[in-house]
Design goal:
305 residues; Rossmann fold; six-stranded mixed beta sheet
């Protein structure tokens, strides 16, 4: 109860939660949601089976034709177009806290971009009656909210996103090894990360998840500054993780740096599909509605296949 009390009385957290909720709702509004089948019973349009009427059942679902023929009350049950179990894995390492020194930049900070993307995805999944959970990590798991499908589950996800502190190193392999046994055999895992890590086994780690029967979607997020290195003059770059400061002239290394970043992006773009991983690269100056629309189109194409 102490945690809930703190949450309710912290105006900064409440402001972040309200902003996330508004942005997520606006982003999802008007976007068509991909649908998929599950054995869960709901109130969709597709008939599944009959069951005997019990007090409390909705009388609108009684099949009166059957009543007329058999004098018995049977209730129609429907197959709900829903219900996978999705965990979203948020990279909460220090590099995700990068903020551009260029005040006129139209790009969002990486942390805010990731928070808003995850809030929108969570809102969308819950709107589809899917179960969604959130796991934040850096060198270890820092927060874990198990998947739930109730609409009210959106609030603890927003709270977790709003209070997440981005620090430490990215250790995806260690985190996945810690979580793998508890992940569902079937379902979805969405990873949101800048992939700026000393871990050379990112693809092997994601392949391990995919081999468990999980659908893996990787949102690779970088700020435009990290792609272009648009700085001038002698600058001391300070690490947001655990590397020592480095002094250099960006002009001298810009071309080689840009080539290395593009090589990294192309590496994931080339290898992820063959591992069954849906790779989505985005910069934080890309409008999130475009990112979501692409995601939804990809979802629809998967379930039409």
């Amino acid at each position: 109860m102490a945690e809930i009390s703190t949450f309710q009385s912290d105006p900064e957290i409440l402001t972040r939660i309200a902003a996330l909720k508004i942005h997520a709702t606006r982003l999802v509004e008007g976007l068509l949601s991909g649908q998929h089948k599950s054995p869960h019973k709901g109130s969709s349009v597709e008939f599944a089976e009959y069951k005997d009427y019990s007090p409390g059942d909705d009388i609108r679902h009684i099949d009166w034709k059957v009543v007329g023929k058999t004098d018995k009350y049977h209730v129609k049950q429907f197959e709900q177009s829903t219900n996978l179990k999705c965990n979203i894995l948020l990279d909460a390492s220090g590099s995700m806290a990068y903020q551009s020194p260029f005040k006129n930049s139209i790009a969002m900070d990486k942390a805010d971009y990731a928070r808003t993307l995850i809030a929108a995805l969570s809102f969308l999944l819950l709107k589809q009656y899917d179960a969604v959970g959130l796991i934040s990590f850096s060198d270890r798991v820092t927060d874990h909210i198990p998947p739930r499908s109730k609409p009210s589950h959106f609030q603890p996800i927003l709270y977790s996103l709003a209070q997440t502190q981005f620090s430490g190193e990215t250790r995806l392999k260690h985190t996945v090894e810690e979580l793998i046994e508890g992940l569902p055999r079937r379902g979805m895992l969405i990873v949101v990360s800048d992939l700026l890590s000393r871990d050379d086994d990112v693809l092997s780690t994601l392949k391990l998840i995919s081999s468990k029967g999980l659908e893996v979607i990787l949102f690779h997020i970088l700020h435009p500054d990290e792609v272009l290195l648009p700085f001038d003059g002698d600058i001391v770059f300070e690490s947001l993780e655990d590397d020592p400061p480095v002094g250099l002239d960006p002009v001298e290394i810009r071309q080689k740096y840009q080539e290395l970043i593009q090589d990294m992006i192309q590496h994931y773009r080339h290898h992820c599909p063959s591992l069954g991983i849906d790779y989505q690269f985005t910069q934080t100056d890309t409008p999130l509605d475009q990112v979501l629309r692409y995601y939804l189109l990809k979802r629809r194409s998967l379930f039409k296949a």
